[in-house]
Amino acid sequence: MAKVKRQNIREIITKRFILFFVVVIMLFVILVFNLYKIVFINGDTLRNDVFNTYVKERSVDATRGNIYSDDGSLLATSLPKYRLGLDPSVYNRNATSEQKFKEHIDELANALANFFQDHTAEEYKNKIVSAKKNGKNYLLLNNRLLDYQERKKVAKFPLFNLGEATKSGIVFDKVNVRYAPFGQMAYRTVGYLKDKVAVGIEGSFNAELKGTPGKGLFEKMDKNTWRPVEGGEESVPKPGLDIYTTLDINIQDIVETALMKAMTTYEGDYGVVIVMETATGEIKAISNLSKNANSLTGYSESFNYAIREARDPGSVFKLPSMMAMLEEADLPLDMPVSTGNGKYHHYNGTMSDSHPMGTISVAQVIESSSNVGTMVLMKKVFASKPAKFYDYLKKYHLIESLHFQIQPNPRPNFPVPAKWDAFQLLWSSVGYSTQYSPLQLISFYNAIANNGYWVQPIIVSKATRADEVVIDYRASQVRDQAPLCSPKTLAKIQSMLEGVVTKGTANNIKGTSYGIAGKTGTAQRIINGRYIPGKYYTSFIGYFPVKKPKYTILVSIDNPQGHAEATYARQVTAPVFKEISDNIYLRDMKLHRKLAGTLPDSLNKASLSHTVHPMDQTILYSNFGLPKVEEDGSWLQFKMDKQLVQNTPLSFPAKTVPNVIGMNLRDALFTLENRGLKVKANGLGTVVSQSVPAGSPTRKNLLLQIQLQ
């Protein structure tokens, strides 16, 4: 019985073994078949899949073009930055590389820890050793971007200093980063490309700046890192065009300083300044400051209000209304206009003047900024033909978009005559029930300064590649061939604008040697569809010098606060205009006059030699009776010998130390500090020596000593 049982157990074991053996053989056959299928049948397909996953043809960005100011100063450029990577596999190639690795890995880890200051030397060592052990051929050591000088320093670290990458393992992944040499200057206007948001010149001229991408093969190293495959580049990127703006960095600095000072003083919600060159329509400066988000203090550029924000313009719009009325009815400037008690009632609306004026002249309607006077005249001239007023505004470029180079710049919000009633006609004539951007308004005022000729504002003059002008944007700039109005009307308008400053609402900025003409504007702000008393949008638009305008300037500040009396343009924006115009006048030597001619008999025995700043010449010719002559824009070597006065223009080459010998202390400081030099002065009188010779190269914060006697 026992023998039978043992025989049955043996048979069972034998059968199970045979079954197991058969299963193993079958699995082996299946495995061999699948290997054959993978290698010989599907091999090409699978290899292509892997290649496409880990080696891909990717776009190679072109070097982005630079953005320059009008004098060639860099406003934006692309600088190469580098991420530091490592190919640990090079240390596994032979006994020599293994030995080098063991000798210097600790030194390398210490160098990396000291340089980046984010991990310990032990952590860097473990990261590298682990990658080497696992056979990785790429390791991102740190995500921080290095500049070129830092790259040179890192390349001297132990192991990295072995020379070519095949020995050292060092990998620098190049990344082009946009850099603004002047920091936040004109930040919103120059613009940026960030998180798929494109603004300013960077955004509007992206097609020109970005160039043509190339194509190349890249190997995937980890989740977010791709490295170029040597020799795999199929097409070379074509660099973008360089863009030259019309911005003047010196005027831009003046504008930003003055606007920041005003915003801090009056605590406005936002402020705008635009400086336009009268004859050319070129924007020389543009600044937008608004309160920092989520902060109770501080201002920065976060939105281009100058171009994109439209508001009721207020009293500055009385000027196009007046121009249209003068053209249509030839109103005499001394014609009386009754404003009664300073209130104008129409249906359910009432418009008031700042105070009762009684009977005033047509000229005083603008000079005193009378809402009632403007409405009385508007009803007299255009009540029966409102479409005619609309036609005038269209001629003045106040209906359609400016098609400015920075996009978007929407058209003004002004209803067509078919939707008008008398209320709309009268209220729009004084700057209400319409919306205009600051740029649209300054363009109209600039035409008045430009002898009546309207020119389209422009902020980019050309696009170049090397020295070749590829696109000349001035060639497509719109310039009216006929003036906006007759010479007679223009003379009246210019007279009224000058009167605003000499005897009207802006007489607090009169008395300059060069003269200012302009118009104040104070409009009630709309909040939730309602005009709110005590909340104002203030502005001043004008030009200077008054007799031969070179610059037109707009200053606007929204919702000024902080000072109970400072709610009107007279107190808020007009002084900012004057501060800007004063500083531009002092800087722009071509606005000043040159001395030449014969001395009066009282000085016919005098002899003098002096370096003269052009602004001092007014004092000389007024006090000494010297004749006025034109000036070419240079500093002058003033020489007076007996009856003869001679002037020799002086020039100071860029990036060199100027010659200040012969200057007074103020002029010497002005000249040297504008070159970024630090100055130490000794003595009184005029400069007789300087510690660094004229013509020497300048460098930032160079200390220069001057001796006066």
TrEMBL record:
Protein name: Penicillin-binding protein
Lineage: Bacteria, Pseudomonadati, Bacteroidota, Cytophagia, Cytophagales
Subcellular location: Membrane
A Pfam family per the record: PBP_dimer
Organism: Aquirufa aurantiipilula
Annotated InterPro entries: Beta-lactam/transpept, Beta-lactam/transpept-like, PASTA_dom, PBP_dimer, PBP_dimer_sf, PCN-bd_Tpept
Domain PASTA: 652-709
Residues passing through the membrane, by range: 12-36
SMART domains reported for this sequence: PASTA
Major location (coarse): membrane
